[in-house]
Specification:
about 210 residues, alpha/beta, 2-enoyl-CoA Hydratase, Chain A, domain 1, six-stranded mixed β-sheet, two-stranded parallel ribbon, 3 helices, about 20% helix, globular
Length: about 210
């Protein structure tokens, strides 16, 4: 796919794929009727696309995950699950397609970025935490409300202050405070010039593989 090619649509149009710059592939969640809630088709499409982009023949060197309509994602799409089937079907949703999408993000061999234009809740936040970097619009809300639904997130992305594999703590940095360091890494204002250069997660120099 080239930056001039029209976007592809998967999951009945709920996941759009385009290339805003050479080597950068953008996955845009677009499910406005449900505030970009993540359902099976969206999650399966994310996993399949990342698998394709991970191939050695792929020109992709960065993946951006974002949301349309002024929001990132309201989390899992559980609104239509009947009460008497909720426990079983919600467990299946978390166990297979969501964990598979998380694993595909973490296995991608180049940097991944979550661009958060609006509220990022529950499973949407976990998806964002699974990316190497996160850039958020000022004033958005982040939330992880599984306890109210009787769900427990067991995946490693769940802690807000997760440690990356370099041992550095992830942290949030407002977009206005970002700057590019001499080695190509994007860091926050005042960030040390040491070898761990990524904002909010594992860093990689421009053109290099992420330290995953």
């Amino acid at each position: 796919m080239s930056s001039s090619a029209p976007p592809r649509e998967l999951a009945d149009g709920k996941l759009r794929i385009d290339e805003p710059a050479d080597g950068v592939v953008r996955l845009t969640i677009s499910n406005p009727a449900k505030r970009n809630a993540l359902d099976h088709p969206i999650l399966d499409a994310i996993s399949a696309t990342l698998g394709e982009l991970s191939a050695t023949s792929s020109p992709a060197r960065c993946v951006m995950v974002t949301g349309a309509h002024g929001m990132f994602s309201a989390g899992y799409d559980i609104g239509e699950i009947p009460d008497d089937e909720f426990e079983e079907r919600a467990e299946r949703l978390v166990a297979h397609p969501f964990t598979q999408a998380i694993d595909a993000l973490e296995a991608f061999p180049y940097p991944t970025l979550a661009a958060l234009p609006g509220h990022t809740i529950g499973g949407g936040l976990e998806l964002a935490l699974s990316c190497d970097l996160r850039v958020a619009q000022d004033g958005i809300k982040l939330g992880m409300p599984p306890a109210k639904l009787g769900l427990v997130y067991s995946h490693g992305a769940a802690p807000f202050h997760r440690r990356d594999r370099s041992g550095a703590h992830a942290r949030a940095v407002p977009a206005g405070q970002l700057r590019r360091r001499g080695d190509g890494a994007v860091v926050g204002a005042g960030e040390p010039r040491g070898r761990h250069g990524g904002v909010g997660g594992r860093g990689a120099g421009a053109g290099g593989r992420a330290g995953k």
